[in-house]
Automatic annotation (TrEMBL):
Listed GO biological process terms: daunorubicin transport; doxorubicin transport; response to antibiotic; transmembrane transport
Bilayer topology term: Peripheral membrane protein
Keyword line: Antibiotic resistance, ATP-binding, Cell membrane, Membrane, Nucleotide-binding, Translocase, Transport
Chain ranges passing through the membrane: none
GO CC terms of this entry: plasma membrane
NCBIfam families, alphabetized: drrA (TIGR01188)
Subcellular location: Cell membrane
Name this polypeptide is given: ATP-binding cassette domain-containing protein
Amino acid sequence: MSNAIVAEGLVKTYGALRALNGLSLEVPEGTVMGLLGPNGAGKTTAVRVLTTLLRPDGGRATVHGLDVVKDAAALKSHIGASGQYAAVDEYLTGFENLEMVGRLYHLGAKRAKARASELLERFDLTDAANRPVKGYSGGMRRRLDLAGALVADPPVLFLDEPTTGLDPRARLGLWDVISELVAGGTTLLLTTQYLEEADRLADQIAVIDHGNVIAKGTADQLKDEIGGERIELIVADEDEWHTAHEVLENYAPGQVHASRATRTLSVGVTGGSAALVEVVGLLTDRGVNLRDVGLRRPTLDDVFLALTGHEAETEAGPKQGESK
């Protein structure tokens, strides 16, 4: 399998700020690469370089076999992009927006109209096709913007936080569309602040911080790297909390994370369900009653926290014009 996107040592600076600090990345054809990272990590800067909107100060990158600097003009017809803010003309109708994009891609009048109709139907916007976009909801604008990125049916697609601000139903709908595109052979580079989104969509995940990739792998590989499974429990009686803490300390070599206020404890273990059964038996022998107990693997939230030192942002991110 060849790589649709290759970045080697990308550097981009804004005065004293080094937005990209030797970033390297490879995305195989027909796969989804999810970029995770805190605000200011360099995700959006990387996307802008790879889509020819920014010229790197160092390093090189190719997309679909074309150099993002030397072949920038030719590359534009091979990629589609949707940014954090819907790039639509609110004074045109939804149909007119998509038809205009088709003409800019030199599809021809007939094909541009046909493609606009196809995409409006695909994104459930047919009923609003002839209404000015200024009357669209935020979710409708996001769907129209993504439709615009698909007008030329590009083999490589860049989506920069495409579902930020959408309600859960609209987000799930876009996930289905994205899954269909990838099943059809499209290569996708996706930046997101929703870790569930990366877990659901991405074949590979790259965690970026301070302009560089600090970890890369499948969701399961990244989860395994930070410690495997954990037993989590809630003690029914506060008086038994100390005993439960002692049992877990003696059972597992790792640190016990505990909160007496909520009567919760957790510790990393090996052995899966067998370890859970053994711990419950030890607690029962010591007379500890449990309100709840379970075994869980790390989430991508845990991965993000372990790698970057803080939790992922869950809001829409920085205001327009701020560095990403």
